[in-house]
Amino acid sequence: MNDETVYVTGESRTSVENAITKTYGAFYVAFEINGKTGEIVEADCSGTLELTRSFVRRMFIGKRILEDDQKIEEEIKRRYFGSSVKALLVSYRDARKRFGQIQERG
User: How large is the average pLDDT for residues 80-86?
Assistant: First the structure.
């Protein structure tokens, strides 16, 4: 266990007909982040397929949630063509905002 990390989630809505909405009610993304460096060490999401969760995980791990924000958003737009792309972007932004608030508190 790494006591330097924090757990942060972000959430958003998907379309009513999306399987994620039917299963979870919303789209969630979760991050384990090094609290000092902002590096994402683990990630997961409420995707209904393991491939989705694995793909999302690989896009985020190793990046810094605050400093790499533009790079992360560009990569999502360039590589992720699932129906929940907007929800993934909004969820990421929500988690980034929460992490920023944690950093401000010190």
Answer: 89
Contacts of 16 (CB under 8 A, 6+ apart): none
Query: How many whole angstroms separate alpha carbon 94 and alpha carbon 98?
Result: 6
Residue listed under structure tokens 């793909």: 55
Rounded to 10°, the helix 50-60/69-79 angle is 150
Contact yes or no for 34/5 (Cβ under 8 A): yes
Answering whether pTM is above 0.90, one says no
Sign of CA dihedral 43, 76, 104, 11: negative
Backbone angles phi, psi at 15, to 5 degrees: -65, 155
74 vs 24 pLDDT, higher one: 74
Q: Which CB contacts under 8 angstroms, 24+ apart, belong to 22-25? A: 23/48
Is the pLDDT assigned to residue 12 strictly greater than 90?
no
| 39 secondary structure, DSSP code | B
